[in-house]
Amino acid sequence: MSEMVLMKGNEAMSEAAIKCGCRYYFGYPITPQNEIAEYMAARMPQAGGFSLQAESEIAAINMVLGASAAGARVFTSSSSPGISLKTEGISYIAGSDLPCVIANVQRGGPGLGGIQPAQSDYHQATKAMGHGDMRLIVLAPNSVQEIAEHTVLAFDLADLYRTPVMILTDGALGQMMEPVDFGKLKINKPPEKTWAAAGHSDKRPPNIINSLYLDPKDLEAAVLERYKNKYNIIDEKEVRYEEFDTEDADIVIVSYGIVSRIAKVAVNMLKDKGVKAGYFRPVTLSPFPSGRLGEIAETAKRFLVSELNMGQMTDDVRLAAGCKKPVDFFGRTGGIITTPEEIYNAAAKVLEE
Amino acid sequence: MPENKIKTYSIIAAGFGGQGVQFIGKQLALTGMYLDKKVSCIPSYGAEMRGGTSNCTVIISDGDMGSPVTDNPDILIAMNLPSYLKFHKTIAKDGCLICNSSLVSEKSEREDINKYYIPATDLSYEHNVPMNVIMLGKLISATGIFTFDEFAASLEKSLPESKKRLLDMNIKALKLGFDYADSE
Amino acid sequence: MVVFDRPKSLTDREFHYCSGCMHGVVHRLVAEVLDELEIRGKTVGIAPVGCSVFAYNYFNCDMIQSPHGRAPAVATGVKRVHPENAVFTYQGDGDLAAIGTAETVHAAARGENITVIFINNAIYGMTGGQMAPTTMPGQVTSTSPYGRKAEIQGLPIRVCEMLSTLDGVAYAERVSADCVKNIRAAKKAIKKAFEYQIAKKGFTIVEVLSNCPTNWGKSPVESLEWMRTNLMPYYPIGVYKDIELNKKPEVENNA
To answer: Bridge partners of C176?
Structure first.
C-alpha cells in the first residue's frame, strides 16, 4: 500500500520542516504562500512548536534572527514583495553566521506585480539577498516531493554551515498538488549549538551574536574567514544539478524549478524530431553549477536558457560556458507559465539560425 | 485518446467558482495516486478564486511525470459557457470534451475530438446529488481513464470520517453520470 | 570591606560613551538588577543600533546585536524559544520610536514577556546629532537646523503614554537619569520590570530620560539642567501602567 499523500507544495514544505525538527515559524500573509502560515498555525501547536503571524515580514525575519540566535531550527516564508522586506534581516543573519531557512514562493514583479507564478527573483536570490559581501545557499526544487526533500536538506545545510538557506519555488509549485512520501525523508539530528545566546548559566563566557566590526581590518578579516571557511567550501561541496544527453548536444536547454519540468518535455519533443537535444537543470542556483556547464560547453553546440523571467540566469550560463558557445534565452514573465510547445519552438528557431 | 507507449492524460476542468472544479481535480489526482500512477494537479487561484472562472490542470501518467501544465489537454471538463469558450478549441486532436449541457447551449463543431454532452446541473437538481461528481461519472465512462469501481473506491477512501455519510450520495451521482446515455 | 564594586553583570570593558553621557549609568543600573535578581546566567540582552550598539561588549550575559529598530522582534524570537530566559532590549529613541515603532508597538500589543530599556535623549547620537522622534519642539539638531517645527517635522512621540493604552503592557514607567534621587528611582523601576517579566506578567518598558552633552553642545552639567528644564516638563516621569496596581495613565511630575 502506498504511503503517499496528495499535498500542495506549500503544505509539503511546512510538514517537512516540522518532520525535521523545526518548531518555530514566523510569517506574514502574502499570496501565493499563505498555505505555509496556515499549515504552521494549525500544526505547530500539535507538534509542541510555536507559530506566529508577525506584524510585518521585517518583524518576522528578525524573530527568526532571535530564535536562531537562541539555538532553534527556525523557518520563515514569503513571496517576492515580502522577501524584499526581509533582505535587511537576511543580511544580518548572514553577517551573524546564523542558520535559518527562508522560502520564497515567487510571484511576478516588480512592485506589487501579480500573484501568478514567476522566477523573477533569481537575481535577488543568487546575487543580492542582502547588503554586503554575503550569499545564501539557494535550492530550486521542481516537484512537491523534492520540495519536502529540499526542506530537510535546507535545514541540514543551514546548520552545517551556519548560513541562511533559501528554498526558491513559485506560485505554481506552491499551489500544485502532487503525491509526497514523507517516509523517504532522511532526518538528521541538528548539531549542538554551543554558540547560541540562550543564557550562559555562569558556566561559560557570554556568547555574542553580532555582525558589527567598526575596524575595517576586523571586518575584512571576518568576511575573508567567511569566504574561506564557508562560501568556498559550499562552492566545492554543495553544487547540485541534473542532466541528460548533454554531451555533443546540438542544443542544451537549461532551466530550473517548475520550468525544468516543462523543458524536459520540450527536450523529448526535439529528440522525437531527430534533434540531439540535452537537458541541464541547476538544482542549487547558489552555488551555481558553473563547472559542469563549462565542461558541457566543450562539446555541446549551443545553449537555450528558459525561465519565467526576462533571462536572469542567462549571464550565469554564458559565464559558465566561457562565452565559447551561443547562449539564447526564451521565457515568459509576469506570471505566465511557459509551455513545452513554446520552448520547443524557441529551440527550433535558434537551431535554424 | 492518442495511443502512446506510455499513457499520459492531461485534463483541464473548468467552471464557475463554487461548482466544485477543484474537487474534480483533486479527486482525479487522488485516484491516480491510489493506483500508483504519477499525478499532478495545479489549481487556478488568487483573483480567479473570487467569483470568476475556476480551473485546474490534472496530469495522470503511467510513466515519468513531465510538465504539470499543458496548452492542449486530452480532456476538457467544461462546466459552464465561459469555460467551454475558453478551452474547447485547445483540446488535443482525438481528445475528449465533457460538457455540462445544462449551462452550455453551444455544440462544438470540431470533428477531430470526441464530444459528450450531459445536463449535469439539471440532473443534480432532479436527483439531489452533486453536479461535479455526475461530470466525473461521465468522464470515466467516456474515457476509461479509471473504472467505476476504482473511482468509487477512491471516493470512499478520501472522504474523512466526519463526511462518510455523504458517500452514498456521491456514488449515486457518479453512477448517474457513468450510465448517462449520450445525447449526441 | 568592599563598599563599591563593579556589578558582576558588567564586563571589564571600558565604556566608549562620551564623557557626561548617562548610558554608562543606566548600563550599571541594569547590571545591578541582574545581579540582585541573580538572573545573569539566564539573561539574553538585545543591543540596538545607535550609541548603545556596543552594549553586547559591556553586559556580561549572552548578547545579540539587532538590526536597527528590530530589537523587540529579535527578543520575541529568543523569548518564544526560551520562555524561562530573561530577555531585555536596550534601545534609543530613534531605534525604538522611529524605525522600530511597529516592532515596539506589536511586541507590546502581544504582551511579549520582555523588558525594554528605552533611552530617550531626544536626539540621534551615534550618527551625529540628527533629529529624533522625541526631539523637542524648537530643538536645533543637524537635520532640524532651524529648530523642530510642528508643521514640518511634526511633534514628539510620548512613548510611555502611547504604550500604556495597550492591554499587553504590564508595566510602563518613565524615569529620569538627571540626578541621584531619580537615578535611584530608575533602578527600582528597572528591577520591577524584570520582576514582572520573571513573573510572566507581560510587556514591560522603562523609559529613561537621558542626555547627550556632545550633540546637544552642552557641558555634562548643563545637559542635566537642560533635561530638567526642557525634557522633563514635556515627558513627565511617573508610572503610566502597572497591572498590579490597576494603574491607568497618571502623572507624578518631579520636574
So the answer is: C209
Asked if residue A251 and residue A184 are part of one domain, the reply reads no
Q: Does pTM top 0.80 for this prediction?
A: yes
Interface contact flag, A208 C80, Cβ < 8 Å? no
The vertex-C126 CA angle with C122 and C127, nearest 5°, equals 95
- Are A336 and A316 in a shared domain? yes
Taking the C-alpha atoms of residue A44 and residue A348, their distance in angstroms, rounded to an integer, is 50
Second CATH level (architecture) for the domain B8-179: 3-Layer(aba) Sandwich (3.40)
A112 in contact with B, Cβ within 8 Å? no
The predicted complex's ipTM stands at 0.92
Mean pLDDT, chain A, rounded, equals 96
Confidence of residue C247 (pLDDT cuts 50, 70, 90): low
Position A208 in a domain: no
* C-alpha closest to that of C132 among C214, C141, C207: C141
User: Sorting pLDDT into bands at 50, 70 and 90, what band is C251?
Assistant: low
Assess if residue A219 is contained within a domain: no
Report yes or no: C16 and A212 within 8 Å, Cβ to Cβ.
no
For A259-314, the pLDDT digits (tens) are 999 999 999 999 999 999 999 999 999 999 999 999 999 999 999 999 999 999 99
Q: How many domains does chain A have?
A: 2
Q: Which is nearest to C81 in space by CA: C112, C54, C40, C105?
A: C112
Q: Are A141 and A167 in contact (CB under 8 A)?
A: yes
Q: Which of C37, C49, C70 has the highest number of chain A CBs within 10 A, making it the mutation to test binding with A? A: C70
- CA C38 to chain A, closest CA, distance in angstroms equals 10
| CATH number for the domain that contains residue A295 | 3.40.50.920
- Which domains, ranges and CATH numbers included, belong to chain C? 23-242 (3.40.50.970)
Tally Cβ neighbours within 10 Å of residue C99.
18
Q: How far apart are CA B170 and CA B172, in angstroms?
A: 5
Contact B41 A177 (CB under 8 A): yes
pLDDT band at B1 (very low <50, low <70, confident <90, very high): very low
Closest alpha carbon within chain A to B23: A177
A324 in a structural domain: yes
What are the boundaries of each domain within chain B?
Answer: 8-179
Same structural domain, A252 and A163: no
Residue C102 to residue A63, Cβ atoms within 8 A = no
Residue C221 has pLDDT above 80, yes or no: yes
Q: Are A27 and A59 in contact (CB under 8 A)?
A: no
Boundary-marking domain end, from A237, A260, A285: A237
A296 and A321 share a domain? yes
Q: Which residues of chain A have pLDDT under 50?
A: 1-2
Contacts of B67 in chain A (CB under 8 A): 261-262, 264-265, 339-340
The parent domain of residue A340 ranges over: 241-352
Measured in angstroms, the CA of A325 and the nearest CA of chain C are apart by: 45
Nearest-neighbour CA in chain A from B34: distance (Å): 7
B143: Cβ contacts below 8 Å, ≥ 6 apart: B1, B9, B75, B96
Report CA-CA distances (Å) from A336 to A30, A81, B16, B83, C218: 19, 18, 21, 19, 63
pLDDT at B6 (0 to 100): 60
Residue A245 sits in the same domain as residue A233: no
Cα distance between residue B183 and residue C247, in whole Å: 78
Whether residue A65 and residue C67 make contact (CB cut-off 8 A), yes or no, is yes
Same domain, A184 and A247: no
Of A237, A266, A299, which residue constitutes the final position of a domain? A237
What is the rounded CA–CA span in Å between residue C235 and residue C244?
23
How far is the CA of A33 from the CAs of A38, A223, B83, B150, in angstroms? Answer: 9, 33, 27, 33
Is A310 contained in some domain? yes
Position B18 scores a pLDDT of: 85
Q: Does A134 touch chain B (CB under 8 A)?
A: no
Within 8 A of A178 by CB-CB distance, chain B residues are: 29, 39-41, 65, 68
